[in-house]
Amino acid sequence: MPANGPHNSAPRPAGERELMSASDVARTVARMAHQIIEKTALDTTSSEHPVILIGIPTRGAPLAARLAERITDFSGVRVPVGALDITLYRDDLRGKPHRPLERTSIPIGGVDGATVILVDDVLYSGRTVRAALDALRDLGRPRSVQLAVLVDRGHRELPLRADYVGKNIPTARSENVSVRLNEYDGADAVMLGAQEGPMQDAAAPNAAARDGDGESRP
User: Fold this and answer.
1) Count H helices, E strands: the chain?
2) Burial of 36 (0-12, 13-18, 19+ CB in 10 A)
């Protein structure tokens, strides 16, 4: 098995426990794809109101691609996929370490008149989603916007909820939810561990990137 194969996993930090295995992640993505097909009537929707999946980097982008693949498998409909960097729209730029800009790619035709489904790995405070809505507004006017997340860990600070949730995982604010995907981490899993302290965050600049959108931690 190659080093980046789906069954390879990095050493597990002390105190972490697995909430979702690779097979759990695969089943959850498949279920969410079925839900999207049903709710958007993808197999009957005309091209006048297309459905577009847009992932929020880091891990929302590969999740959007996976959902699109499963939707095609189940319905035969090919759904355009894009990515939307929200770094400059975050409301915590002054209080967090510098984050490199991610790539934004919008399918040909743009978002005007489309049903846009934002895809993210973890929904926590809701501030990342708010930033994504602001970024999306600068790109055009969708017909509607929906939200799909692999994990909803609670503790919302804004009046937002997801339309498609892979798994609701009640957590304490002192805990950290880490979504790991094969595209970035060499394996699929969702892990729960203790929140890292300020000194640990400063010493590990890649920690925020590993959590994808930053929603998994305050």
Assistant:
1) 6, 8
2) buried
Q: Tens place of pLDDT for every residue, the chain, 218 residues?
A: 333 444 444 455 667 899 999 999 999 999 999 999 999 988 775 556 799 999 999 999 999 999 999 999 999 999 999 999 998 888 766 555 556 677 889 999 899 999 999 999 999 999 999 999 999 999 999 999 999 999 999 999 999 999 999 999 999 999 999 999 999 999 999 999 987 654 333 333 333 333 344 444 34
Spatial distance between the Cα atoms of 66 and 25, rounded to a whole number of angstroms: 11
- The one-letter amino acid code at 167 reads K
Is cis: bond before 58, omega within 30 of 0?
yes
Q: Which of 80, 76, 67 is nearest to 150 (CA)?
A: 67
Per-residue pLDDT tens digits for 100-114: 677 889 999 899 999
What is the C-alpha separation between 54 and 147, in angstroms, rounded?
10
pTM of the model: 0.82
- Contact by Cβ (8 Å): 86, 136: no
CA distance 29 to 42: 17
Cβ-in-10-Å burial (0-12, 13-18, 19+) of 141 comes to exposed
Task: Give the CA radius of gyration of the chain.
Answer: 17
Phi, psi of 123 (to 5 degrees): -105, 125
**Close Cβ partners of 163 (under 8 Å, ≥ 6 residues apart):** 39, 117, 146, 147, 148
Please name every residue paired with 6 in a beta bridge, in sequence order, or none if there are none.
none
